[in-house]
Amino acid sequence: MPKIDLCIDPLFPGFNSSDKIRKIAALDYKAIEFWFWDYEFDGVNLIPTPKNIDEIATIISDLDIVVNDIVVNSSDGAIGGSLTNSKDKVKYLARLEDTIAVAKKLKCNKMITCTGNILEGVSLEAQHDSVLEMLSSAVAIAEKEGITLLLEALNSTIDHPGYYLTSSKKGFDIVKQIGSPNLKLLFDIYHMQIMEGNLVNSIKNNIENIGHFHSANLPGRNELYSGEINYRFILDVIDQTGYNGYFGLEYWPVGDSEESLKKTMEFLK
User: Fold this and answer.
1) What kind and span of H or E run contains 174?
2) Distance between CA atoms of residues 79 and 72, nearest Å
3) How far apart are CA 6 and CA 32, in angstroms?
4) Is the dihedral of CA 110, 182, 194, 205 positive or negative?
């Protein structure tokens, strides 16, 4: 069984990140991730309220919790800029540097990066070139700082209309073009089930270029134990590849977060 981490943002709505981490640790989860260091999520909206990073650093140290990854920029580029937009390069790289500083306080060495949306009036070739150019610059910083960037492909059908990178194959091609061990693909099983299916073959054939997994079930982006995706089978496949990173749970509980996490823990045993 791969090691499990929890994305804290969709869990325990109404609580701040520090209290969410305490609640998660009490349920015996040992690793977490979160979206943005300068926003809280209230269960519906992102609120521009910085997380208390110094307090979180103390909590994770006291409770022996790992922070596996945090997010650089939003899927639409509103936070931190878009890789598809060459005009956002300075903005994006500055955001990357700021996020690295936060990550180091949390002893975190992985960061998720999004491409942003497709731009109207700009050729797809020019947008692809922008993605490659900006990632190359970002990877140079990541290599210097000992950070691994995780490029995420998302679905454009339900959650992220207009998003640029919606294919794991295209994502793997970008990772190979950059050619650095400090850039991997974040393989989000939920998103890729929506966009392309063929999950097991995609994972097995490209595991060396996968740096992290996200998961939720369909329909609804809810618990792994209920829905059309057979997560027990997929977790066994991942285990057999020798993958030694974390497997992230990024789902919205149907009901009470604590009960959902208890049932999920039993499901994953």
Assistant:
1) helix 168-178
2) 8
3) 5
4) negative
Instruction: From first to last of the 269 residues of the chain, give the pLDDT tens digit.
Output: 789 999 999 999 999 999 999 999 999 999 999 999 999 999 899 999 999 999 999 999 999 999 999 999 999 999 999 999 999 999 999 999 999 999 999 999 999 999 999 999 999 999 999 999 999 999 999 999 999 999 999 999 999 999 999 999 999 999 999 999 999 999 999 999 999 999 999 999 999 999 999 999 999 999 999 999 999 999 999 999 999 999 999 999 999 999 999 999 999 98
What token pair was written down for 204? 């097995």
Q: Evaluate the omega torsion of the peptide bond into residue 219 and state whether it is cis, within 30 degrees of 0.
A: yes
Sign, Cα dihedral of 220, 225, 226, 231? positive
Question: Angle at the Cα of 172 (from 171 to 176), degrees rounded to 5?
Answer: 120
* DSSP annotation of 251: -
Q: pTM for this one?
A: 0.96
Distance of alpha carbon 218 from alpha carbon 127, whole angstroms? 31
Token pair 């490029």 in the structure block, residue: 151
Look up tokens 């497709």; give the residue.
Answer: 118
Consecutive H or E run containing 111: strand 110-113
- In CATH terms, 3-268 corresponds, of 2.40.37.10, 3.30.365.10, 3.30.930.10, 3.20.20.150, to 3.20.20.150
The string of DSSP codes covering 78-117 is TTT--TT-GGGHHHHHHHHHHHHHHHHHTT--EEEE---B
Report domain extents, the chain: 3-268
Strands 46-47 and 40-41: antiparallel
